[in-house]
Hints:
By secondary structure, the protein is of the alpha/beta class. It is 50% helix and 14% strand.
Amino acid sequence: MQHQFLIIEGNIGAGKTTLSQMLAEDFGFKLLLEEFADNPFLPHFYQNPDRYAFPVELFFMTERHKQLQQELAQRDLFQEGIVADYIFYKTLLFARNNLNTEEYRLFQRLFNILNAAFPKPDLLVYLHRSADRLMDNIRKRGRAFEQEIEPSYLQEIQQSYFEFFRSNEQLPILIIDIEDLDFLNNPEDYQKILDLINRPYRPGLHRASFY
């Protein structure tokens, strides 16, 4: 694998954690997984987003920062490959979608302070699936607190990601349409994704589809 710091991103239910785990095992990379299950505000947020949006986003931001600071800021990235299933910037994307104007303005100031020191990934891979497919995956994995999610919310998150990708010229970003791929159970599908990831990419946005 020519990329030593990989980030696998995607909407809720896209399969980013599964792919990150597979890549870490196959290439001996350090695995960084988002610890979303420890957020005590998350179940309440899905039931009452207006009330719990700020604490849920603040908790996510501080926990992501703590984990990334421990694993990245004091590491030599050339000694061991790293694959993560989130980018710290997603903190701001979700906050923009969930917070009111005043809350977001405050949140953005805190984010900019915390984001300053992190190294940039060699490649950011975004796994794209339609909202319908994401809803299927969310139902299948059966996390109780996710069952309140609406397709419209997933569409809003997707739009936030795409706006970020279009405005970012510093990172190599690869969007892969994996709508009907089953890379967990189908080795050929997994190999297709590997072939795409293990290529050089210039900074900017790149798209790939198998259809």
